[in-house]
Amino acid sequence: MFDTETGDTPVLIRHRPDLTENDVTDRGLYLRRREFIAGAAGLGLAGLGGMAHAAPLAFTKGFSTTEKPTPKDDVTSYNNFYEFGVDKGDPAQNAGKLKTRPWTVRVDGACEAPQTFDIDALMKANKLEERIYRLRCVEGWSMVIPWVGFPLKDLIAAVKPTSKAKFVAFETLMRPSEMTGQRWDVLQWPYREGLRIDEAVHPLTLIAVGLYGETLPNQNGAPLRLVVPWKYGFKSIKSITRISLVERQPPTAWNLSAPREYGFYSNVNPAVDHPRWSQATERRIGEFRRRDTLAFNGYGEWVADLYRGMDLKKFY
């Protein structure tokens, strides 16, 4: 087991095979992408480019894997971040306009001490550690990423949650002047996500402020994002401005958009296919062969007990 007291970390070794993005892109979404791109070109948005300057971070080593990390260039250039466009290269192209300082995160709701945290003060107040996690996208591709951050449970503890805190709701920045994708109704903006409280305070759930030992690039969710390694990547909401402890299950962006396809839990599960493609295999970015998808993305030893007794086909 993962020992948060001693810092002992297990070594995970899995080798498996995959499918291409073209195999899983819905025609309707493709047409919406074409409409988005055409409109962006008309507004002169296609060539904004640029990235915020990355700064080195001080951190300790934490949870890891012996799997080879995905090259940094791939991690920072192949992204889903619809606030900047719907194609994989759009975030790196368009996110440079986002201003990440000053930046605050409001943590409120069912708690005794709601607070607004400044990002720089938050980073200084929390011990940062590197965690090398697998990331599995619902589209059928995956990466291995060395994140730098701190456990979400520490941030939640700081506001002293009450017994009414059953779920945690997250919200992304809403700023269409800089996040140009928000000018189009691809999703209901601002982007929202949610976790059950026991998922949120699990030791593996991370607030990431960096990757590859440096501050997060804008296209990867600067200045802070959620990382929940046993769930599909869209659950790991980016550029967070608000976290609320709530009593009822909160609405989430992709579930609102297509509830039959994207459930609230969205645990990685090779036995439960997406309605339009299989989830049994995945394509690791940088590899040609396909590999088997692992239940809970390979983290079942640490998280499966959270779902004991649940029908994971019903609660997908």
Task: Write the SSE topology.
Layout: H1 27-42, E1 60-61, H2 72-75, H3 90-94, E2 104-109, E3 115-118, H4 119-125, E4 129-136, E5 141-151, H5 152-158, E6 167-172, E7 192-196, H6 197-200, E8 206-211, E9 214-215, E10 225-227, E11 240-246, H7 253-257, E12 281-284, E13 291-292, H8 300-303
Parallel strand pairs: 1-4, 2-11, 5-12
Antiparallel strand pairs: 2-3, 4-5, 5-8, 6-7, 6-11, 8-9, 8-10, 12-13
Transmembrane segments: 36-59
GO molecular function: metal ion binding; molybdopterin cofactor binding; oxidoreductase activity, acting on a sulfur group of donors, quinone or similar compound as acceptor
InterPro entries: MsrP, OxRdtase_Mopterin-bd_dom, OxRdtase_Mopterin-bd_sf, TAT_signal
Structural summary, described in words:
The protein has 316 residues and is α+β, with helices and mostly antiparallel strands. The protein has one domain: Oxidoreductase, molybdopterin-binding domain (Sulfite Oxidase, Chain A, domain 2). Helices cover 16% and strands 21% of the residues. It has helices at residues 27-42, 72-75, 90-94, 119-125, 152-158, 197-200, 253-257, 300-303, and strands spanning 60-61, 104-109, 115-118, 129-136, 141-151, 167-172, 192-196, 206-211, 214-215, 225-227, 240-246, 281-284, 291-292. Mean pLDDT is 88; it is low at 1-51.
